[in-house]
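hey so u asked for the seq, here:
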Amino acid sequence: MIPPYQRLANRIRNEISDMEIVIQRMQKALQQANKNPDDQGFYLDSVALNLHNFYSGIERLFELIARYVDRSIPKGETWHRDLLQQMAKDTPDLRPAVIDEDSILALDELRRFRHVVVNIYTINLIPEKIIKLTMTVKDIWPNIRSELLAFAELLDEIVIK
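ran it, C-alpha cells below
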C-alpha cells in the first residue's frame, strides 16, 4: 500500500505535468488570437478556460495538502482565499510554507479571475485582462513548479523516515 504522503507527492507531480499542457494550450490559443483578429474571441475563450483550469489544478493540490498534511481545510465564504493564505504559512511541526508571498499574489489574481469565468458569459471577459493573466502564468509558473516539486520531495523524505 502506498502511504498517503507518497500518494500526494505523486499527485503533485502528475498535476504539474497536466498544468504544463494547460499552459502550452493557453499560449498556443493566445498566439492564434493574435494571428486571427476576426476570430480573437473564440481563441480568448480557450485561453480563459485554460486559465480557469490552471488555477483549479493549483487549488486542488492545495486542498489535498490542507486535508492530508495540515488536517485542516478552511471553511466559509472566503475558503478559497483562506486556502491560498494557508499554503503561504509555515505550519509548526507539520510543514514549511508550500509557496511564497509572490506566488500568493499572482495566484490570488487568478483565483479572482476564475470566479469571474464561472459567473459571467465569456463575451463579457476583457481581452486585455486575459492576455495579462496569461503572461502572469508564464512568469510565475517556473517558481510555482519549483515550489510544488520541492514540497513533493519533502513528502518523499517524510515517507522514507
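The chain has five helices and no strands. The chain has a mean pLDDT of 93.
lmk if thats what u needed
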